[in-house]
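step: validate -> pass
step: tokenize input -> pass
step: predict -> running
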Amino acid sequence: MGDSAEITHFMDLKACDPAQVVLRTGCRFDREQNQYEVRIWGHPYIVDLDEHKIYPKNSQTVADYALMDLFILYFLMKSKNLPVSGQWVSEKDIPGGAGFFRGPHTIPTDLLAKRFSDDLVVFAGVCKKLGGEKLNLADASFSFSITPLIPVAVLYWKGDEDFPGQVKLLFDKTIQDHLPLDIIFCLACAICYRIAKTPADSKQII
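step: predict -> pass
step: emit ->
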């Protein structure tokens, strides 16, 4: 991160009361270093307020996309300390989502359908490498704890002679209380990109 708009997000976070951020998100704050430590997708990340940088604490952990960085900043700034509802919803079920998640804001789940080409064994292997927990939905499905407050599910339906395979993301209903639509879109894109780019035989810690 580094452009003026992104630095503005860091400045907005810097203006937040760290005690309240910690209370809402369960993250840690190092006053001496002026850094937050937050677990994202099961691994610790450092948010450096002075250097305007987000990076993995563990050198073996894969750095995420810039879209995930934007999600992390908004999560720290805006999320609420709400229990997970346990009710999955699509992006179209989120208030305003039916009009927003279309055209340029269509979630790129087609990347996953193309990547796995109905090979549910490979799909499951990649999801497990990324810490996915198996669900009993669609033909194959896994949930991911992006943060303890924000789980996301990825569902895969195999294609047939009439319809190609289809992949869909579902969110816990409370996501509408945590994030605006554009940041939900950033998160969804980052999830699709990461799953699509993870090698099935990767031995890298992710």
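step: describe -> Residues 110 and 167 are 7 Å apart (CA to CA).
step: cleanup -> pass
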